[in-house]
């Protein structure tokens, strides 16, 4: 018996930093003018995408004590942009990253409930924690929370937010910080939450929104992040876009769902993906090569190198070999505000791997950085790209993709005009929106407010508050 053909989920990420964008392209526009966001969002909606996604940047990045000028474009406030986009779109989901380390539950719950009302049920929250004290310097809390306490704060932050969302039901919901048990008493719409991180009580002032709560996204790849996604998130952003790595990640996360009483279709796996299109595969490959050269200039290559070497390498020749000196294994002091510095693990081991690769392929420093930071997931003609996307989804390497174009705001246009129709012809992607809320687009069941004295875990109407366990970074 053959299995049903899976429907593909597509979303679009408006990039907020120069990790992917090509500034020198004549088509490149502003990353802060509202017109850019409008064009991007309307293109995604014209393509019947599930949602638009905005990341978050709470501080400008620095390298060697200077603003990382190759990477900075400015970061307008997420809620402001999404609320404005709600007025110029009708069906497109609106997803934003909001930090649980520096914000407060009442404020965030009120903002998301308002966004869900303004958009008619299209709001989504990508829950993250902040990992560095450098970013924390912009806030009263600074860097005082070590990692385990950030996760503890995030867990209770989520439980508190659910209590607030669900409190507009004519009952008071009381969250006990010791037991996680939610109690009720007959005071309409009131809430109380007391634990090591929060001591709040009051009355939520936004009625229950069309979705009840925002759709919950998660973007971590650690074991703790995967467990959080399985416990209650509706979708998980993944960096595993290739077949084998994607299948391994997909199988690992999906198998965790059963322990929380959840079915496989209650959590979507959505890797980020870039793309380069051409009239032919050969033309697309040529364009892709030029794009990578523009994405990684000599200066950018040196800054990437410094993030691993943890040294000032401003005098190093990007067109020469890798440095003979080894990385500094001490505390990272060169690049600040970049999550990528956490990904290297053993710096010396990674440097040796890079040296072996450079020697085997006779690569200069810049060529090596282009090789190890490759971002182009799909390269080819529209037909080739459509087939590649469908093959990965049908092979359970993902449930769809979050597309990140290298030019904004118009970089999504070609994909919508040429690739989407081919997917629609295959019968694997919608030709029209069938619902009005983001939960509808994602194929998720409506949330039903708890009636038995517990508050649901995010995305799982049958789960208790303790299962909304882990936040992500």
UniProtKB/TrEMBL annotation:
Q: Where is this region: Disordered?
A: 454-473
Q: Any idea which positions bind FMN?
A: 97, 151, 222
Q: Pfam families per the record?
A: Bac_luciferase
Keyword Secreted annotated: no
| Molecular function in Gene Ontology | monooxygenase activity; oxidoreductase activity, acting on paired donors, with incorporation or reduction of molecular oxygen
Concerning CDD domains, the annotation shows:
Nitrilotriacetate_monoxgenase (cd01095)
Give a yes or no for keyword Flavoprotein in this entry.
yes
Sorted alphabetically, the keyword list is: Flavoprotein, FMN, Monooxygenase, Oxidoreductase
Q: Which residues form the Luciferase-like domain?
A: 25-395
Please give the PANTHER family that the UniProt record associates with this protein.
Answer: ALKANESULFONATE MONOOXYGENASE-RELATED, C2H2 FINGER DOMAIN TRANSCRIPTION FACTOR (EUROFUNG)-RELATED
Q: Give the family this protein belongs to, as stated in its UniProt record.
A: Belongs to the NtaA/SnaA/DszA monooxygenase family.
For this entry, the protein name equals FMN-dependent oxidoreductase, nitrilotriacetate monooxygenase family
* Organism of derivation: Candidatus Protofrankia datiscae
């Amino acid at each position: 018996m053959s299995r049903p053909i899976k429907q593909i989920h597509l979303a679009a990420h408006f990039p907020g930093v120069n990790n992917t964008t090509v500034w020198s392209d004549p088509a490149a526009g502003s990353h802060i003018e509202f017109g850019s966001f409008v064009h991007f969002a309307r293109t995604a909606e014209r393509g019947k995408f599930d949602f638009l996604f905005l990341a978050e940047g709470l501080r400008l990045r620095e390298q060697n004590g200077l603003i990382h000028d190759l990477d900075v474009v400015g970061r307008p406030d997420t809620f402001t942009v999404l609320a404005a986009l709600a007025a110029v779109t009708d069906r497109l989901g609106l997803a934003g990253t909001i930090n649980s380390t520096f914000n407060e539950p009442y404020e965030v719950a009120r903002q998301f409930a308002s966004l869900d009302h303004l958009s008619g049920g299209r709001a989504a929250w990508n829950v993250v924690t902040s990992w560095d004290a450098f970013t924390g310097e912009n806030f009263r809390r600074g860097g005082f929370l070590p990692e385990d306490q950030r996760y503890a704060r995030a867990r209770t932050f989520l439980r508190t937010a659910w209590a607030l969302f669900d409190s507009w039901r004519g009952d008071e919901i009381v969250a006990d910080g010791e037991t996680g048990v939610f109690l009720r008493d007959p005071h309409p719409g009131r809430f109380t939450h007391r634990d090591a991180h929060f001591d709040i009580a009051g009355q939520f002032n936004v009625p229950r929104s069309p979705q009840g709560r925002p759709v919950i996204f998660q973007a971590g790849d650690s074991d703790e992040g995967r467990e959080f996604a399985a416990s209650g998130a509706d979708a998980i952003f993944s960096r595993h876009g290739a077949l084998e790595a994607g299948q391994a990640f997909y199988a690992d996360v999906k198998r965790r769902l059963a322990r929380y009483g959840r079915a496989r279709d209650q959590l979507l796996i959505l890797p980020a993906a870039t793309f380069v299109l051409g009239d032919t595969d050969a033309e697309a490959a040529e364009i892709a090569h030029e794009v990578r050269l523009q994405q990684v200039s000599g200066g950018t290559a040196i800054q990437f190198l410094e993030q691993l070497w943890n040294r000032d390498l401003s005098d190093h020749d990007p067109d020469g070999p890798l440095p003979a000196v080894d990385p500094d294994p001490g505390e990272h002091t060169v690049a600040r505000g970049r999550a990528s510095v956490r990904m290297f693990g053993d710096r010396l081991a990674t440097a040796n791997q890079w040296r072996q690769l450079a020697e085997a392929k006779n690569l200069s420093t810049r060529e090596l950085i282009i090789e190890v930071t490759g971002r182009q997931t799909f390269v080819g003609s529209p037909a080739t790209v459509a087939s590649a996307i469908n093959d990965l989804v049908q092979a359970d390497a993902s449930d769809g993709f979050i597309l990140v174009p290298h030019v904004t705001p118009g970089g999504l246009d070609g994909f919508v005009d040429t690739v989407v129709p081919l997917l629609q012809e295959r019968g694997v992607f919608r030709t029209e929106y069938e619902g009005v809320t983001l939960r509808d687009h994602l194929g998720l069941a409506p949330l039903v407010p708890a009636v038995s004295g517990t508050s649901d875990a995010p995305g799982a109407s049958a789960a208790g508050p303790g299962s909304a366990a882990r936040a992500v970074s």
